[in-house]
Design brief:
Shape: rod-shaped
Number of strands: 0
Largest sheet: none
Number of helices: 4
Distance between the termini: 100 Å
Order of helices and strands: HHHH
Radius of gyration: 34 Å
Length: 130
């Protein structure tokens, strides 16, 4: 009877790659999340450029000239953002020279008609380009 008994074989070593697979899955997920974030960010950035220019033009065109000093600061702020091409930059440079006279005085009188004409001309040029 001892002929029929066989020895029990030792356990076979099985390679365990689960930790490596887990790390690779996490890295792939992070990479995919980063790519999706970049695509969404670039899409939002492209859409914002058009909307932001319209917003800045809206803010520029609605400057209240009852307070000339504050109006000069706002017109300079929003006008500088709208100055993209050569023509608008040149018009804004001329307008800014007039607005700087209003910004840095302690007491400011009413805005003269020449400054308002420069303001309206720049507003019209910006409106045409949008």
């Amino acid at each position: 009877m001892s002929d029929g008994l066989r020895d029990i074989k030792p356990l076979i070593d099985i390679n365990d790659h689960s930790l490596i697979l887990l790390i690779l899955t996490i890295l792939f997920g992070l990479f995919l999340g980063y790519k999706l974030f970049r695509v969404a960010f670039n899409y939002a950035l492209k859409n914002c450029k058009v909307d932001c220019e319209k917003y800045y033009f809206y803010m520029y065109s609605n400057v209240d000239w009852s307070n000339p000093k504050e109006a000069a600061y706002l017109a300079t702020k929003y006008g500088a953002v709208l100055a993209k091409d050569k023509r608008r930059k040149e018009l804004f440079r001329q307008l800014r020279a007039k607005l700087d006279e209003l910004k840095y005085k302690k007491e400011v009188a009413k805005v003269d008609s020449q400054t308002l004409n420069y303001y309206n001309l720049y507003k019209q040029v910006c409106d045409e380009s949008l």
